[in-house]
Write a structure and sequence with these properties.
Layout lengths: L6 H12 L4 H4 L40 E2 L4 E2 L5 E3 L9 E2 L33 H6 L5
Antiparallel strand pairs: 1-2, 3-4
Length: 137
Amino acid sequence: APSYWSDCSLRYLEHSLKRGVDYCLRNPPDSVYGGARCGNGLLEAGEECDCGPVLIEGAQCASGECCNSDTCQVKEATVVCREATNSCDLPEYCDGQMEHCPADFFVQDGLRCPDHPTVCFLHFTSLEEFFSSSFCA
């Protein structure tokens, strides 16, 4: 699951919020869709508390790229959870504590690509790759 918004998405969101699209976000419903349910993390009528979903005894995780689905344990910090997509991208590793892969990291813009005669620019190996991609304008 992505953990950050692109500049393009943020601009679109800001534009939409200025037009009043946030009405539903600021107008909570009287009741939760599907009715009250124990374990959904919401304190609803008739509940004293609701801790949300609970893991089985001994489990550290239940989902995510860094969760071993056979053992329900978080994978070690040496396990690659996202491969690099090009020479300007860096591989990501599980941290040994969280079940999800960390944010996608890239080589700093302006650094020479190790296997390309150009420099990295906005996570691309060349301006040609950048302009030929489906980039949000």
